Amino acid sequence: MTAAPQITNKVHTGSKRPRPPRGRPKLRTSYAQDMALLNTPAKRWSTLLLVVIGFCAPLLFTDDLLQVLTLGLFAAIGAIGLNLVSGYAGQVSLGHAFFMGLGAYTAAVLGGDSEGRLVGFGLPIYIWLPAAGLVAAAAGLLIGPLAVRLRGLYLAIVTLGVVFLGLHLFREANHLTGGPGVGRRAPDLEIFGINFSASGGIPGLDWTRDQQLLVVAIVFLIIFGVAARNIARSGVGRAFSSIRDRDVAAAVIGVDLTGHKVLAFGLSSFYAGAGGALYYTVVRIIEPTGFDLLLSVQFLAMVLIGGVATISGAIMGAIFITALGRIAIEIAHVVPFVSTSVAGGGLLNIFQLEGILYGLLIIGFLIAEPRGLYGIWIRIRNYWKGWPFSY
Amino acid sequence: MSTNPVCEVTDVQLSFGEVKALNGVSFSIQGAELFAVIGPNGAGKTSIFNVLSGVYRPQQGSVTFGGESILGGRPHRIAKRGMARTFQNIELFENLTVVDNLMMGRHHHLNYHWWEAIYWWGRARSSELANRRRVEEIIDFLEIEGYRDQPVGMLPYGIQKRIELGRALAMEPKLLLLDEPVAGMNAEETEDMARFILDIRSELKIPMILVEHDMGLVMDLADRVMAMDFGTPLVTGAPEEVQSNPDVIRAYLGPMSEAAAAAVADGAPEEAP
């Protein structure tokens, strides 16, 4: 057994990055290695594998499955946002649907075309996507100060009020939203002159719309996900968690409670706005009554089922919840008393089944695995790490 | 003694409705001394800490820290000026790891903005690394290397107390407030903690205010002691002086006979084995 090399005192900041010694990949020789985003070989390889599979997915799956996955990935951006404010900073927000709607409509107004009485500016994505985030963030910054005074259930109820206010706003602003039952078209996803929303948009590849959108979704999710992870591991993320765990101690240690709560709402709403704008480019039609309490609850379910205060958990939860409708259909094919049509016979239809699954999953996870899908993953990982021993 | 006190509290009055929590409390901390505050439950010891760290706002009196008034300042601003504190009931961030808890202590030493955290490279990364090094020095000082990556909620009580001390030390404070650092600890853990407190005084030269019920510890460690009862300071002085003061004995043991008090004052100040 060789002596373990000393931890170097030198702070590595330059271009020369320290590497673990050959043959001992888990030995840390600098704090930079320990603090790295992917600090073990297993994490690096599995992430690489996931990304490769992701980019190959358009060739592997059918279009309807790809669409579910794409919606899940865009919803994940919103779920990450909710996890920042509710999971990390511990401020329960039921207003997420409002911020998503705000982002979606900002995108539609700025990026869409004017048709009839609808206002549209036809601007490119470089403007409508950041604007969707910023407008939602601005609304979040207005809601944020409420969290300074209110906490827990009271804050939840105030943010619930925001959803209803938003619904009313979206319904009434006809020339912007198209009005209830009609809605308006979401802008096309056109980046660098390539229109991903139209089939065959990528020159040289004869891909369908769904294949193309999935690739865009992966790229956006990586950008938003890495940014969120960086926030979470920085002083800002730690301050969020400290406010969640012990707010008095956090203040006494030097955390500005007001500033950080407002920042959490702002960041979360930015993610919601951008996520909402992107999500509806897949859905195509933005209907104002869709941004109701149910949508907020769905996002809370994504965070709870995926894993509170984890970025990967939020992504897993978002994909899972988005796929729930599809899962219900698959169950209906197997189980005889579930019908696939609303009118048809049978004991249940798929929409009722989906609702029941929701409830059962939330209750089940809260009782059995409060850490969510992420917790299940940690258990599996620890089992294999410790194998053949139990721990 | 130096002419500039680190911290000076003058005639502080704090009341909650009709209840006088603090009534005319005055003291000053000079140099790197260890100042202890003792008194029965409800005497107002923790209230003093809450006034100092800005959690409570007294109705009257003045509090200066480093020559400037901190009265009415918000807790995080006072913390930034160099006031660190531990709590009677552990107030650690239980879902964060030991390293992250100590990094929280260095919160106001981080010199990057939140938007720099988003892309990480540059100032955010170098600042995190530099502060991580300081945190590791504290981990080394408190001998908690083995617990580094564990969430603090899972750790034993004595270790948690030590980490809380570490979090306060990570702030590089100019004044350290210790609220019952050995409460609920066994003899060995108490001894460890006493050694750390002595090390802080001799090596780091940080002035400390200590609230503690373990009289053996207080009398051994403190340079000066202030005894309180019902929000009113009874006596301030050297440990032996306070120990033999009849008012202090009365506060602790109730309205006992003067004779018994005198007996204690004359006779064996040594506590029973």
Automatic annotation (TrEMBL), chain A:
Pfam families with a match to the protein in the record: BPD_transp_2
One Gene Ontology term, aspect cellular component: plasma membrane
Polar residues: bias regions: 1-12
Span list, region Disordered: 1-26
Membrane-topology annotation of the record: Multi-pass membrane protein
Subcellular location: Cell membrane
InterPro entries cross-referenced by the UniProt entry: ABC_transp_permease, LivM-like
GO molecular function, one term: branched-chain amino acid transmembrane transporter activity
Spans traversing the lipid bilayer: 45-62, 68-85, 92-111, 123-146, 153-170, 213-232, 262-280, 300-324, 331-350, 356-377
Keyword Membrane tagged: yes
Extent of Basic residues compositional bias: 13-26
Keywords: Cell membrane, Membrane, Transmembrane, Transmembrane helix
Protein name according to UniProt: Branched-chain amino acid ABC transporter permease
Organism: Nesterenkonia alkaliphila
Automatic annotation (TrEMBL), chain B:
Gene Ontology molecular function, alphabetical: ATP binding; ATP hydrolysis activity
Keyword Amino-acid biosynthesis part of the UniProt annotation: no
CC per GO annotation: plasma membrane
Keyword Nucleotide-binding (UniProt): yes
SMART domains noted in UniProt: AAA
Protein name: ATP-binding cassette domain-containing protein
Pfam families, alphabetized: ABC_tran, BCA_ABC_TP_C
Residue ranges of every copy of the ABC transporter domain listed in the record: 7-255
Keyword annotations from UniProtKB, A to Z: ATP-binding, Nucleotide-binding, Transport
Matching PANTHER family: ABC TRANSPORTER ATP-BINDING PROTEIN, CONSERVED COMPONENT OF ABC TRANSPORTER FOR NATURAL AMINO ACIDS-RELATED
PROSITE patterns in alphabetical order: ABC_TRANSPORTER_2
